């Protein structure tokens, strides 16, 4: 029997977690410039201001370039690492995988400052490219964690049957393995994309004169009149996050259906 106290705690936790997100669209459509109740009235002015802001548009373009590049590179590296981790044995495997996963437990500010010192030391100018390097380093462990599960749930006998029928390792990977783990790859890319789009500390240290979406939002928080526009931007980001989460959950369930694995729960 479930404890009433536990239910109350779970309900209070959900309110604490999601109440700020619910307030975003409420104040985004409020005509007042002060974030407080009572509301003044309904308006779309802040969304008009949002979409006509050239600096914000450039920040969004930079962030999308960085996020898409990070998703591609982190997932590619994750495929190689997850494949090696789940299918092969080699000397020093636990230590190597531990080092690869180390960014999961390192504070981001340590990673950002270290990268800044190294890049400036070797003469690499700060730009979007350096932010991509930092985000790939941070997102790759998450991609490996997702892809490890995808490769581990794949039945090895399918690959062995392909070898017996004369397929090479590359053709087996391309024709058998890759299509079966494709939902995991999609989930990995979406996770890496979201992590990169949301990341602030590494972008703050490594972007140089380039502005990204999180750094732009941070800079605008100093101006109270810009807060309603930031609320409108937050509303758009929440909607985008829900869409990405839905796609990731669809890919996860499709992967479970393909491999015949047991569904132990997911995003939704």
Which secondary structure elements does this structure contain, and how are they paired or packed?
Blueprint: H1 4-28, H2 45-51, H3 54-87, H4 93-100, H5 108-121, H6 128-152, H7 156-164, H8 169-198, H9 201-206, H10 213-220, H11 227-259
In short:
The chain has 268 residues and is mainly alpha-helical. It has helices at residues 4-28, 45-51, 54-87, 93-100, 108-121, 128-152, 156-164, 169-198, 201-206, 213-220, 227-259.
CA-to-CA gap between the ends? 24 Å
* Largest sheet features: none
Give the overall pLDDT as a whole number: 82
Q: Estimate percent helicity.
A: over 70%
Mind telling me the C-alpha Rg?
A: 22 Å
Q: CATH first level: which class?
A: Mainly Alpha
Could you name the CATH homologous superfamily? MetI-like
Question: What order do the SSEs take from the amino end to the carboxyl end, as H and E?
Answer: HHHHHHHHHHH
Write the CATH architecture name.
Orthogonal Bundle
Class inferred from helices and paired strands: mainly alpha
Structurally, the number of domains stands at 1
Which runs of at least 5 residues are low in confidence (pLDDT < 50)?
none
CATH fold description? MetI-like fold
Number of helices: 11
Task: Choose one word for the global shape.
Answer: globular
Pfam families: BPD_transp_1
Transmembrane segments: 12-39, 59-84, 96-122, 128-154, 175-207, 227-248
Main location: membrane
Protein name: ABC transporter permease
């Amino acid at each position: 029997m479930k404890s009433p106290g536990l239910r109350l705690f779970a309900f209070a936790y959900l309110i604490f977690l999601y109440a700020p997100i619910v307030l975003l669209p409420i104040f985004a459509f409020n005509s007042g410039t002060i974030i407080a109740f009572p509301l003044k009235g309904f308006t779309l002015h802040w969304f008009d201001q949002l979409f006509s802001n050239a600096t914000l548009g450039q920040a969004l373009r930079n962030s999308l370039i960085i996020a898409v590049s990070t998703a591609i590179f982190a997932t590619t590296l994750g495929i190689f690492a997850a494949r090696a981790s789940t299918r092969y044995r080699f000397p020093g495997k636990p230590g190597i995988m531990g080092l690869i996963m180390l960014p999961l437990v390192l504070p981001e500010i340590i990673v950002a400052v270290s990268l800044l010192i190294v890049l400036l030391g070797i003469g690499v100018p700060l730009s979007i490219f350096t932010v991509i390097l930092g985000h790939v380093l941070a997102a790759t462990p998450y991609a490996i964690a997702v892809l490890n599960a995808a490769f581990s749930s794949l039945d090895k006998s399918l690959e062995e049957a392909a070898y017996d029928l004369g397929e090479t390792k590359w053709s087996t990977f391309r024709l058998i393995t890759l299509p079966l783990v494709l939902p995991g790859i999609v989930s990995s890319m979406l996770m890496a994309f979201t992590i990169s789009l949301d990341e602030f500390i590494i972008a703050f240290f490594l972007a140089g004169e380039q502005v990204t979406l999180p750094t732009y939002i941070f800079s605008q928080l100093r101006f109270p009149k810009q807060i309603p526009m930031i609320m409108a931007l937050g509303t758009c980001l929440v909607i985008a996050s829900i869409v990405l989460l839905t796609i990731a959950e669809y890919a996860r369930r499709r992967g479970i259906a393909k491999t015949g694995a047991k569904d132990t729960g997911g995003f939704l």
